[in-house]
Amino acid sequence: MASRPRFAWINGRVVPYGDAAVPIDDRGLQFGESLYEVIPVTVGEPRLLGEHVARMEQGAAELGLGPGVPKLPEWKAILTELVAREGARDALFYAQVTGGAAPREFAPAGTVARTFFAYLSPFVFPGDAEVVRGIRAVSLPDIRWGRRDLKTTMLLAAVLAKKHAQSRGASEAILVGSNGEVYEGASSNVCMVEGRTLLTPAQTTNLLPGTMRGLVGEVAREAGLDVRGEPFGVERLRRADEVLVTSTSQLVMPVVSLDEANVGDGKVGPIGRDLARRLRQRFGLEA
Q1: Which element (helix H / strand E) includes 13?
Q2: Is the pTM of this model over 0.85?
Q3: What domains are defined for the chain?
């Protein structure tokens, strides 16, 4: 779990975390006009930083937030300073760009200075003991907006899905389109194992192009698995040998129960456990 940070970086300077604030008329707050990234830091080193920055830059270009996104060297400088100030070995780095503060209009007149802030939360990533336990999940209809491939802060649908999952004794909700097609988890990407194949949903605007999902695919190929992206339905997911979710905080986490029914034999499978171990080794979390 993450612990509360002591510092934050906002619009060019480091301040005590409790002093970091945005104006009440910030467009990210009032309109959800904002994007965010969460980046893993292990052994004091940011992982997949270039991929996360590129994803924010791409989304910002579509939303008109591009001028507010720092270039990669500045991200590195911000991270270096926050890692040093927090003394964090393992952490989650959160960064957000917003449309900035302006009079409340849907389309503001003139140029508005964007807001960019970031902070680093010390974090304990799941180890083998957590992976062996796995997690429970439920499937739910996806009620989010159409551009799910953009990592915006419009997360109310995901919040409601998580709360529903928790009410049923689960920790993740797997979101399903109106045609029965599996998209992703409320805060994760979804994979399934069939034999020696790792299958992920085809990349469309219905799901986020997960940076961790891409790395897990790379690690799976190194392990000798066939990796494919194609559409699949929730019924096929329920019949899978193994179901996995991937995310910055969970890395690779097996799903042992879906909709209160066992996945496979209800125990963590060998492929999910192996991929989780390989990823921890890749990040220096395990020898």
Answers
A1: strand 13-16
A2: yes
A3: 7-122 (3.30.470.10), 128-282 (3.20.10.10)
Q: Clarify whether 163 is annotated catalytic.
A: no
**In which band, very low, low, confident or very high, does the pLDDT at 1 lie, cut at 50, 70 and 90?**
low
Query: Residue 109: which pLDDT band, with cuts at 50, 70 and 90?
Result: confident
- CA 186 to chain CA centroid, Å, is 9
Pick the catalytic residue from 71, 76, 151, 163: 151
What is the Cα–Cα distance from 20 to 8, expressed in whole angstroms? 6
